[in-house]
């Protein structure tokens, strides 16, 4: 798979020619060439043929395929440490490379959790040894993800944690979240929070409504998201913190988000690719691969999310990669683990929004590259001289049929299994190294 | 005057049709002619069950496994009797369930059981969709004896049998289903089957025990029981679990009985000759007054138990007839 030996950061320079270049920073979408050398983008030319190339370059003819910045996925769960049979950092990195994702932010809800600097360091060291894609740890906002005592945000930020979150567990105590938000401000770091009222959502595995009632599934009203979000936004206003709404999923919550943004609060929002693709009808046969957290919503909400993404109200899209082995999914719906793997399907599923919903390609690419990179203070997400050579080459029209058994993830819980999408990742480049290349 | 044995068994054989599906997991899977056929067959089994000799050999050589992850003396013994009267070998299994391992137990048990080659598998489980999941994993016929809040289709069938015998046609009957609709699989299966057969439906209960959008189930929703049962032909009461009554869903037992318990005074508002039903076991003095429950001129509650065995015999015999065809 790897065309160069590991660690060969420099190697010979690569020249991508005859590409359709998409740069979300400048908004450029047109013919182009990119020269990669010493792990960074050395030259960008907005014409199909390269001028002033050198013989030492390895030339890659893109044949008109899209060359874009590698994807930055801000919400990836692995099982390392603590649940390696689900997914390791290595298998997740392979899955990312196969999906054109060059940077992943791994979530802190591991065992033990990433709630202190030594754990941040552990993740970074493991990632360095694997050397496939960039792996950034997110730190826990509270000790043990307990929602009660603030974790060592400063030390973890210093060690390399890129943002703080208690992942799927809302911080119920408003005083605690207020302090986390205030304190994180001193270190210029982002706090992400899942808006979910824990009492309304207790035991729920579906969205309240006719369908869940007919299926006899415990459900929570959509208001459970809005209620918590309103509180969160009030605390953001109080503290002036930089805040990420983690996986917004309902039309009602989008209205709250819009008000907060209109007010000028430093708020961003992510949305999972699953909620942009599927709706609650998909759980109709109790198929547990569609058991997600937040649960799938009615079509009305999905349409509102797509519109919000098109308008830029939703800033970024995540895979919400959550591996679960067969034994956690082959259960009655309400007892199955929530979540779906998504690293390898994020890009084709996103492209589907371009092909079928008519969303602008540059805007879509921005939501998985530049937008998350800027939020995290990373240099990637753009195609410009001096930027890291993290690239994906993708044939956006090529039909692909997703076969869960062939995914690189250790867990195969993909709701896309058997679906036909368009978008074949041809090559993934990280720091100038080819880390994935499609079989010819 | 009861007809002689041979007549009934001939009637049964004449009325026996292969079941339209391999499994019986949802009342919604049936079509009106299937329901009529099952009810006609069940009628004949009622006659058989009232004779001294109640045995037939329609399930001879067949193995019926009762797999009950949730306790239920009534339903389990009803299926057991139904199987034995049809000549099947019946095995009862009640796997111990702990909150940690119950899911694993379901699939593991299914695979283990399947290897023992049963023909019919009757399942009760606390999770909605469990029977459907099991049906995917085994090669025998699965009969849903209750999955979570989802369905309990043989209960709906026996309820309909009781209603049809007491009141004639189902079409046009006005039926009020009263109580904890939210957590009730009995209600969901009855709504599906009664709608299918042309009854008019009302759902009655406090808002906290009514599912979201229940008004879109093809039923009228009432929160005032007096209004809800006014003029109805059948009042079907549901069991309210005691742990839901201490302030969780309703404030107290006595408040529930005051507003949603069926007593003679409320029953007087129903149509003349209205019948009262309850899937059992009853909480006397909570959802139903003993005076009403025990009044055989209005109560079908004991009939329901009798019809339960006959309706289940009809389902088992039809499923077995289908298995016969598959050979």
Produce the secondary structure layout.
The complex is a heterodimer of chains A (440) and B (327).
Chain A: E1 14-23, E2 28-37, E3 40-45, E4 58-61, E5 66-69, E6 71-76, H1 89-98, E7 101-106, H2 117-130, E8 134-137, H3 153-159, E9 163-165, H4 174-185, E10 190-193, E11 206-207, H5 210-215, E12 219-220, H6 223-239, E13 243-245, H7 251-263, E14 267-272, H8 273-277, H9 299-311, E15 316-318, H10 326-329, H11 346-355, H12 361-367, H13 370-376, E16 391-401, E17 420-430, E18 433-437
Parallel strand pairs in A: 1-4, 1-5, 6-7, 7-8, 9-10, 10-13, 11-12, 13-14, 14-15
Antiparallel strand pairs in A: 1-2, 2-3, 5-16, 16-17, 17-18
Chain B: H1 5-15, H2 32-49, E1 63-68, H3 73-85, E2 89-93, H4 102-115, E3 120-125, H5 130-137, E4 141-147, H6 153-167, E5 174-178, H7 185-196, E6 200-204, E7 220-222, H8 225-229, E8 234-237, H9 253-260, H10 264-267, E9 275-277, H11 290-293, H12 301-326
Parallel strand pairs in B: 1-2, 1-3, 3-4, 5-6, 5-8, 6-7, 8-9
Helix pairs in contact in B: 1-2, 2-6, 2-12, 3-12, 6-7, 6-12
């Amino acid at each position: 798979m790897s065309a160069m030996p590991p660690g060969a950061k420099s190697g010979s320079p690569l020249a991508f020619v005859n590409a359709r270049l998409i740069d979300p920073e400048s908004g450029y979408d047109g013919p182009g060439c990119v020269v990669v050398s010493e792990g960074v983008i050395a030259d960008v030319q907005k014409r199909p043929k390269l001028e002033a190339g050198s013989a030492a370059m390895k030339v890659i003819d893109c044949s008109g395929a899209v060359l874009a910045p590698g994807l930055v996925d801000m919400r990836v769960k692995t099982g390392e440490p603590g649940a390696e049979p689900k997914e390791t950092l290595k298998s997740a990195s392979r899955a990312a490379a196969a999906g054109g994702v060059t940077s992943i932010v791994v979530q802190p809800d591991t065992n033990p959790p990433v709630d202190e600097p030594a754990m941040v360091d552990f993740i970074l060291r493991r990632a360095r040894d694997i050397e496939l894609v960039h792996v950034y740890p997110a730190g826990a906002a509270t000790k043990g993800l307990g929602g009660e005592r603030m974790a060592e945000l400063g030390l973890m930020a210093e060690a390399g944690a890129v943002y703080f979150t208690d992942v799927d567990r809302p911080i119920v105590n408003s005083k605690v979240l207020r302090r986390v938000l205030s304190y994180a401000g001193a270190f210029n770091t982002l706090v992400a929070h899942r808006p979910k009222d824990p009492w309304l959502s207790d035991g729920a595995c579906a969205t309240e409504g006719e369908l869940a009632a007919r299926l006899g599934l415990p459900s929570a009203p959509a208001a459970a998201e809005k209620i918590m979000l309103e509180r969160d936004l009030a605390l953001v206003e109080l503290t002036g913190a930089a805040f990420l709404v983690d996986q917004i999923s309902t039309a009602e919550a989008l209205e709250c988000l819009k008000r907060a943004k209109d007010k000028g609060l430093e708020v961003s929002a992510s949305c999972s690719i699953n909620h942009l693709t599927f709706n609650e009808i998909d759980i109709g046969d109790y198929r547990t691969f569609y058991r997600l957290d937040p649960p799938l919503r009615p079509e009305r909400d999905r349409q509102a999310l797509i519109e919000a993404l098109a308008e830029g109200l939703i800033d970024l899209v995540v895979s919400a990669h959550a591996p679960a082995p067969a034994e956690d999914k082959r259960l009655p719906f309400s007892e199955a683990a929530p979540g779906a793997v998504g690293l390898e399907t994020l890009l084709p599923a996103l492209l589907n929004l371009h092909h079928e919903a008519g969303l602008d390609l540059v805007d879509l690419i921005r939501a998985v590259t530049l937008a998350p990179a800027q939020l995290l203070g990373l240099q990637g997400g753009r195609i410009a001289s001096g930027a890291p050579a993290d690239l994906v080459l993708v044939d956006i029209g090529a039909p692909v049929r997703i076969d869960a058994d062939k995914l690189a993830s250790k867990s195969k819980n993909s709701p896309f299994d058997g679906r036909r999408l368009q978008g074949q990742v041809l090559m993934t480049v990280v720091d100038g190294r080819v880390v994935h290349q499609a079989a010819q | 005057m009861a007809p002689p044995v041979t007549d009934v068994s001939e009637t049964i054989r004449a009325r026996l049709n292969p079941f339209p599906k391999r499994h019986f997991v949802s009342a919604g899977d049936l079509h009106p002619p299937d329901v009529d056929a099952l009810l006609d067959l069940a009628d004949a089994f009622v006659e058989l069950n009232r004779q001294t000799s109640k045995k037939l050999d329609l399930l001879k050589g067949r193995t019926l496994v009762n797999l009950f992850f949730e306790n239920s003396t009534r339903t389990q013994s009803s299926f057991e009797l139904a199987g034995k009267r049809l000549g099947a070998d019946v095995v009862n299994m009640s796997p111990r369930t702990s909150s940690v391992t119950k899911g694993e137990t379901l699939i593991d048990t299914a695979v283990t059981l399947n290897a023992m080659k049963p023909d019919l598998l009757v399942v009760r489980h606390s999770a909605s969709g469990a029977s459907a999941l099991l049906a995917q994993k085994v090669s025998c016929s699965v009969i849903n004896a209750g999955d979570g809040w989802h369905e309990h289709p043989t209960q709906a069938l026996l309820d309909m049998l009781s209603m049809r015998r007491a009141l004639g046609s189902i079409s046009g009957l006005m039926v009020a289903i009263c109580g904890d609709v939210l957590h009730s699989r009995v209600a969901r299966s009855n709504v599906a089957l009664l709608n299918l057969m042309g009854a008019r439906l009302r759902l009655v209960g406090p808002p906290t025990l009514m599912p979201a959008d229940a008004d879109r189930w093809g039923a009228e929703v009432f929160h005032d029981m007096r209004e809800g049962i006014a003029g109805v032909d059948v009042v079907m009461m549901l069991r309210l679990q005691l742990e839901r009554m201490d302030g969780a869903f309703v404030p107290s037992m006595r408040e529930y009985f005051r507003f949603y318990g069926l007593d003679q005074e409320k029953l007087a508002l129903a149509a003349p000759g209205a019948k009262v039903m309850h899937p059992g076991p009853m909480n006397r003095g909570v959802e139903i007054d003993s005076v009403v429950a025990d009044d055989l001129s209005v109560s079908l509650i004991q009939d329901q138990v009798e019809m339960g065995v006959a309706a289940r015999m009809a389902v088992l015999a039809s499923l077995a007839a289908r298995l016969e065809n598959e050979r």
